[in-house]
Amino acid sequence: MARVAARLSTDGEQSTHPVDEVLPLPKLALYGFQHVLAFYAGAVIVPIIVGNALKLSPEQLVYLINADLFTCGIASIIQAWGIGRIGARLPLIQGVTFTAVSPMIAIGLGAGGGTAALLVIYGAVITAGIATFAFAWLPAKAFRTVMRLFPPVVTGTVITVLGIVLIPVGLNDAAGGLGSPDFGDPKNFAYAGGTMLFILILMKIGKPFLSSISILLGLVVGTTVAFLLGDAKFGDVGNSEWIGVTTPFHFGAPKFEWFPIVLMLIVMLITMVETTGDTYAVGDIVGKEVDSETVARALRADGAATALGGVLNSFPYVAFAENVGLVRMTKVKSRFVVVAAGVFMIVLGLLPKAAAIVAAVPHGVLGGAATVMFAMVALAGIQTLAKVDLKEEKNALIVGVSLAFALLPATVPVFFTKHMDPDLSSLLNSGVTLGATAAIVLNLVFNGLGKEGAHDAPKVELPAQVAAAGDTADSAAAVPAPSGEGEEARTPAS
Q: Does the global pTM surpass 0.70?
């Protein structure tokens, strides 16, 4: 595998493959499959975490993984290939956003868990996807006004909160999974610690390809060790079908409830900032000018993919920064490589046996890998906050008080479960929701809405294992106007 990686990287140095170049089929396949390897762990970990939290059966979890991969493939093709004014036509891989994990778990648990919870989640996902799609067609002035609610002090706080709230989810898996008979067993922590150590060693070695797929390799090695010791069961793999087609509304008709929809709209507002940054970053890497209309097309693809995800039993979608780093690392700039990766993902999404293998990953192993990934999310938020003047007391208060609000649901859960209306609890019993809302409101109180064009979107910071392979993206992205009014909306990051 390392030999193949070296070949890919060397070939990429010799020929940068322009963004619109269609490569020969063997190269498309090799480069596309490398994108899938770098992306795979991040793609499947969200349905695994959400499915386990909602107490889904192994068969239902397998279906979620297949649906996710299938929809990821379609979404990536839409983004890279482009359909009319939808899709950035850049090498951007689409994947389920981590921002939605904690809110979806909160929505699902508020709805009682199981497949009934999925129906409420899908109703919110479909609505938020349609809203995002429509939002990207708004006139420039309206678009910029809304996005001025998200300066770096807000986005940095929200991303930090996201990581902090998700880390306990990873730690619970490391302990064996909440509700499992062996929860807290030292054996589970041994698997988690071993997996985490293996991932950190790969990242320390710093080989570009190994670093970019360290999470995936950690899951593979950890599961292999658990299998050899009799703690990974693959019985469901034999019971799974070879071929399985994802059908719309497999679990039933979606339910549209007000509070979950509001929560998912907040999630999509945050992911729009992320996709904007990734679009500018990959544009700089491939040498293609990114204007406001390009970003708008990328956001329309996000919205369309998210709505499609709700229909096809999956979740909200966003451009993946991991694969932006891979484009920089390999210097293979052709967007058709991402189209090839999308085809691979669609094929994997039609193979229930492959999903059953993934679903058999022991909780301890998954927890070790997830904790690393979630810690890196928190780090990305801290990196964004590093660009904020925290010596200003008002900015420090925004960050500090928002973090305190984010910790309330985990610290005093009884307030939400016993002393609050169930519908209201399903919205507010989430550290991400409370932290994000507090950051937005406090920023408005202390800083106001800000001047036109004054919003500085955060510089894109790639994950640590990708950054180890080379320089981080040095493109700074501000939120532009989607209507093609020119570049006045794009300002450099501070």
A: no
